[in-house]
Amino acid sequence: MPLVLHLHRLLLRHTGDRLAGMFKASDNIMGHRHADARITKVFTPVAAGESTERHMTELTTRYEAAVADGRTPPVALVALLVLDLLSIHPFQDANGRIARLLTTCELLRRGIRRRALRVARAADP
Q: What total of structural domains would you count in the chain?
């Protein structure tokens, strides 16, 4: 969880966003805003406050345990980590950007890029 908060703080540090590096202060919904200002709700993420922090702590704990277990391929674990992160939607803003940064960080941490490059080079004629 500290990495996620750190990435958020770094990403938003020059925006003046007072919530940079902090979990959302109010609930958010995912939906579509129509031209007439109506909003069609598509998904309601985890509530702000203690619930978000609890879900993020649990996500981090379970992810690290699954990595240590070693039975699930790292690419699948990273995909599930990001899916859960986006379902929790822990920030008021920049959840998608954080998900992409976290994906890159975790794939590199798990050595996925090096393996993917070797496979790609081997496949070239």
A: 1
Q: E strands along 3-109, which residues?
A: 30-33, 39-43
CA 58 to centroid of chain Cα atoms: 14
Taken as a whole, the chain contains a residue count of 125
Per-residue pLDDT band for 10 (boundaries 50, 70, 90) equals very high
CATH of the domain at 35: 1.10.3290.10
pLDDT tens-digit readout, 47-100: 999 999 999 999 999 999 999 999 999 999 999 999 999 999 999 999 999 999
CA distance 52 to 47: 6
Question: By residue range, what is the domain housing residue 45?
Answer: 2-123
pTM of the model: 0.83
Rounded CA separation 49/51 (Å): 6
Assigned token pair, 55: 């879900």
Which three-class secondary structure state does DSSP give residue 93? coil
